[in-house]
Design goal:
By secondary structure, this protein is mainly α. It is built from 7 helices and no strands.
Length: about 170
């Protein structure tokens, strides 16, 4: 009897996303660096999209986006829409033009994480008229960007190992 390994792969991704969501939302579990905690689900979505096809990348990007929207306390929509589009585009780029390797995933993450966090800051802080938003950006958002970006390193190797060991194409 042949076991469908894709089911176990997607189950492992879902379990990883659930664990990261709980870690991200639990107070005092992940240490804050300069008053900010990382957004763990953004690098998770990016590392999954680096290996998967377009549709699974789109779905996991949307799930990570919705959960990030819930975790940040905002309305559902910002991260959900943008991570869905970004993960689909990343999967398309890696399946069509580039081979996903560690350096290329780091480059994509170095572009996406500051862009998403910076756009979130602009829309929900600067355009909302919160005073001293520049101080808030320097004291909290720069460390959040660096902290979130650093999480891509272990997640890339974790998801790469899951994909290698549980993919049907062996």
């Amino acid at each position: 009897m042949k076991i469908n390994r894709k089911f176990f792969l997607y189950f492992a991704y879902s379990l990883e996303i659930l664990i990261l969501y709980v870690l991200q939302g639990t107070p005092n579990l992940i240490p804050e660096i300069f008053g900010s905690k990382p957004l763990l689900l953004i690098p998770a979505a990016l590392s999954i999209a680096a290996k998967e096809n377009k549709i699974p990348s789109l779905i996991f990007g949307a799930v990570c986006g919705v959960l990030t929207d819930i975790a940040t306390g905002g309305s559902i929509g910002f991260f959900a829409i943008l991570l869905t589009i970004i993960c689909y585009a990343e999967a398309h780029i890696f399946k069509t033009y580039f081979t996903p390797n560690f350096i290329s995933v780091l480059i994509i993450s170095a572009i996406v994480v500051p862009a998403l966090t910076g756009l979130y800051f602009l829309i929900f802080t600067v355009f909302s008229g919160i005073p001293d938003s520049g101080v808030l950006f320097v004291n909290h958002y720069i460390s959040r960007i660096i902290y979130t970006f650093a999480i891509i390193i272990p997640l890339y190797f974790l998801n790469g190992s899951l994909y290698k060991n549980l993919n049907n194409k062996q």
